[in-house]
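Q: My labmate handed me this sequence with no annotations at all. I'd like to see what the chain might look like in three dimensions before we decide whether it's worth expressing. Could you predict it?
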Amino acid sequence: MNTSNTNPSLSNKVRPSSSKVSPNLGKLGEQLVSAWLQQQGWTILHQRWRCYWGELDIIAQFPEGLAFVEVKTRTLGSWDVNGLLAVDAKKQAKLWKAAELFLAENPHLANCACRFDVALVTCLRQPSPRLQASLDSLEFPPFQPGEPIEVGGYRLVLAEYLSHAFEE
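A: Here is what I predict for the chain of 168 residues:
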């Protein structure tokens, strides 16, 4: 399988350090993207599917096939273009291998058209620790990409959703 990068916006030779986020904030970004995909009529098959090669953040089924969605959540001022530069050729290769293993373990999905999407989430504000809500009980009202959303004391934006972010 060729893991070369066909999207010039995802290629990078030098990867600056990024604004790291807490695991909870990363999970919240994944929940935000999952909620948005469901609002679009997609079915979430798995979140945080793990295997030897790493983790597939979201595996979603839509009418035309499957999407393996990599979610990057960053706070304001990240140095890696809201996480985009973190999806480099090495990361893409791991995602390909993980997706191949997922499909091998789920042969009923093996003939679906598959694609890799990247979702970039920006956290504009975090609540104080004493006001943080449980991330497991949050509900997301309908929203659009680029539109700030308040949830659990956080202010988040689905900054960009790149479908077909990289291909074979």
